[in-house]
Amino acid sequence: MNNLDQYAISPTDWRKTLRGNTRKTYAVILLFFLIYSAVGLLIDMYLYSSTYPTASLSQLFVALVTFQLFPIATLIMLAIAAVSLLVSYMFYDKLMLLGTEYHEVTLETARSVAEQQLYNVVEEMKISAGLRYMPKVYIIDADYMNAFASGYSEKSAMVAITRGLMEKLNRDEMQAVMAHELSHIRHLDIKLTLTASLLANLTIMVLDILFYNAIFSNRRDNEENKSRNGLFVIIMILRYALPIINVLLLLYLSRTRELMADAGCVQLMRTNQPLASALLKINEDHVENRERYNTEYQNTPHENVRREAYLYDPMQAGIENVASISDLFSTHPSLESRLAALGFKMKK
Fold first, then answer.
1. Burial of 301 (C-beta count, 10 Å sphere; 0-12/13-18/19+)
2. Any idea which residues carry the catalytic annotation?
3. Which residues make beta-bridge pairs with 139?
4. What is the pTM assigned to this prediction?
5. Other C-beta atoms within 10 Å of 313: how many?
6. Residues 235, 46: contact at Cβ < 8 Å?
7. Of 67, 36, 25, the residue nearest 255 (C-alpha)
8. Residue 311: which of 142, 120, 180, 162 has the closest Cα?
9. Which residues pair with 148 in a beta bridge?
10. Beta strand pairing status for 147-150 and 158-162?
11. Chain segment 153-202, per-residue pLDDT in tens
12. Which of 53, 166, 257, 259 has the most beta carbons within 10 angstroms of its beta carbon?
């Protein structure tokens, strides 16, 4: 069985991790906005190409970005994205608990000393993190060990842990897990990852509609409309390439935010040992109970929705039922990568 005695401690700079991953995150979010806006401009160019059949692609593009032609499709897409994000922010925390048996924990409603201790730990980390509002605390009735945070703002924030995790971790390890989850809230990870996911999905939906429209309209259009023909080639390439690009960017973003939350935990606790110990214990528990947990995850609806938000990705223990067909790689860094980032490397 793995334990920290098998790992050598090496110096690590959590401040550097936070700074570097913050830059990477905002670069990815900016890239999603640029891709989304570019698809909007592509639609505008496609629509205007029938009105101005002699215009080249570069002429249409310059006319749109300089507002000589009004980019109506781009603005409509941005408005749709804004409304979709607002609705998603409002209901996301409720969606994250769908399909689970859970109850909220407060000082007044705590059913046991363990639940009261959990609430106290979250409150301690809330104060340490400088959060203005106390997150809601939920316990999910499940044997497997996992936890996640949700909410689009500090005021709407919540943390949820499974009963198995609460029962099997000691207080320091529990505190480290809560520091990790509150770091997600502190860093606005839920809002950032949700924004990126929604923009990626909307982009693919719109591109699909444009693709099929282009196929049928191309049969009717004059073949001499070179700009329309050129746009069709671009649309066809993007239709197959963009989903792969989106998946890779979302996976990169998810892993980056997990490493940031790990570093945020060290920042709040001023020690790296409790989180490393908790991660090892959670991984060992999943490996030892793989078959039973595989059944539990499979029988709990919407686990694929929670997978990215979880502290621990069950796929790393060989539990694959929580992943959809489109999930090509893990949403989390490997256990060894996370431990190395925390300053623990396997002894040779």
1. exposed
2. 181
3. 103, 161
4. 0.86
5. 25
6. yes
7. 25
8. 180
9. 160
10. antiparallel
11. 888 899 999 999 999 999 999 999 999 999 999 998 888 888 999 999 99
12. 257
